[in-house]
Structure formats: C-alpha cells, structure tokens
Amino acid sequence: MKATYLTQFIMNACSLFAVWLVLSGRYDLPHVMIGGIVACGVAWLNTRLQCSSVHHFSLGRLLIYAPWLLGRIVASSLHITKVILSPSLPIAPKMIHYQMHLKPELAIVLLGNSITLTPGTITVEVEGDHLLVHALDEASCEDLTSGRMERRMAGVFKEEASP
User: Fold this and answer.
1) What is the DSSP letter of 57?
2) pLDDT at position 80, please?
3) Can you name the residues that pair with 130 across neighbouring β-strands?
4) What is the mean pLDDT of residues 1-13?
5) Rounded to whole angstroms, how far apart are CA atoms 76 and 58?
6) 17 with 84, same domain?
7) What one-character DSSP code corresponds to residue 2?
C-alpha cells in the first residue's frame, strides 16, 4: 500500500523532529521551534523526491547492481593501472556521445555517477537523453558503449534500456 504525499510528509517530519530532539538535548522553546521548522523543511524536500521518480526504484535490484558496479570499478582500476605503468602509455582519449533510453531522472543521475566512479571514464555533460563521456581508451568505455551499464541501471528502475 502506497502512502499518500501528506502521510509521507508527516512521517518524515515527525521522524526528523524526534532525531533533532534526541541529538540536540535542548528542549527550550527556541530550539524546539527551530527543530520543527528544519524538520518540516527537510521532510518537504525529501517527500518531493520520494514522490517523483523513486516509486519505480527497486532496492533489491540496487543491491544486485552495487556489487556489479564495484566489480567494474576494481576491473577498471586494474586496467588503468596497467595502462599507466606501461612504458608506451597506450592511451587514446576520446569523447563519446551516448544516447540513453532511461527516463527517470534519478536513473540518469545514477548512470552518470556510475560512469564517473569507474576509472578511465568521466561523465562530462548530461543533456536530455544524451551523455557526453570522456574515456581514456577504448576498453575504458566498453561497458557504456555496449549498453551493459545502462541495461543494469534500467533493471534497478524496472525499465527497458533500449526501445
């Protein structure tokens, strides 16, 4: 059962206010009022985020994606280390224009951050459904150009990665 926006807001505000009271240890009127105002402000922002694109989000699938991404980070780190330590320094830097098929903004942000976290690539720009990515060499951008990383991210959001 999905909670309504108001219910989520009230639950968030009450939880944050309780944490404020416990952590501050001050129960005079000015501190309690400041705590209430801050808790309501943060709850309002947080509830807006929760009610946007996050409802398609699967925590279980994210817990599967995270170890895969960690594995890619380790593999890319080893590859970049090999490239750096090579006397010939076999790099071929390039900019890649990649068209995504993801729709939720959070999925796009997480994909861009995943690319940047992977050594050898960095997301330079996100505009609409296009990513501009800098890659150190061809092998560094393989997960992106093959669509593998986007498909994995689409799975977290229960979407199709390609039309």
Assistant:
1) -
2) 95
3) 99, 127
4) 76
5) 26
6) no
7) P
